[in-house]
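RECORD TYPE: inverse folding
INPUT: structure tokens
STRUCTURE:
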């Protein structure tokens, strides 16, 4: 039984990942993976940047930074680190500046993220596998490179419609 479940899970992951991989060559995958790794390493070694709170994605040399940091200086420094990495053609710095939250708020936000992700998975025309979701004080941030504008618009509308969401930060970018 466990083998069947694991096989089904693996097949699902491959099915969701397949379309996004098909749009890039093997070299682009390697280059983007290398860029993402270098940006993350740079963020981890830079003072004043809470690197564990920042998400890094790369698509054809374009870097998307998302997440929540407590100070604008951290956001700006993260953008500079990303821009300084070899192979980066553009940086979308979509990091949201938001103060740290209490443990109770973090628990509520975790539940809210689960509700939003479930709603995105259920929505026809939205590839939830392309979208990262985070929340701070019931403000949800959707981030990632999506296939088209219609998917972006639909995902934002779905998130706004989830009970408990106070606001939605748009860090979604249509793939170049």
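DESIGNED SEQUENCE:
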């Amino acid at each position: 039984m466990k083998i069947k479940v694991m096989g089904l899970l693996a097949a699902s992951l491959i099915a969701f990942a397949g379309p996004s991989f098909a749009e890039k060559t093997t070299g682009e995958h390697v280059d983007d993976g290398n860029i993402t790794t270098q940006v993350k390493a740079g963020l981890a070694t830079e003072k004043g940047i809470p690197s564990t709170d920042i998400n890094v994605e790369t698509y054809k040399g374009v870097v998307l930074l998302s997440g929540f940091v407590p100070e604008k200086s951290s956001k700006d420094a993260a953008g500079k680190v990303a821009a300084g990495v070899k192979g980066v053609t553009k940086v979308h710095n979509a990091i949201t500046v938001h103060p740290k939250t209490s443990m109770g708020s973090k628990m509520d936000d975790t539940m809210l993220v689960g509700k939003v992700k479930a709603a995105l998975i259920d929505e026809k025309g939205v590839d939830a596998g392309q979208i990262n979701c985070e929340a701070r004080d019931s403000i949800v941030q959707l981030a990632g490179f999506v296939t088209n504008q219609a998917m972006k618009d639909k995902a934002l509308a779905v998130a706004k419609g989830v009970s408990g969401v106070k606001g939605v930060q748009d860090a979604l970018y249509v793939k170049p």
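NOTES: Residues 1-22 have pLDDT under 50 and may be disordered.
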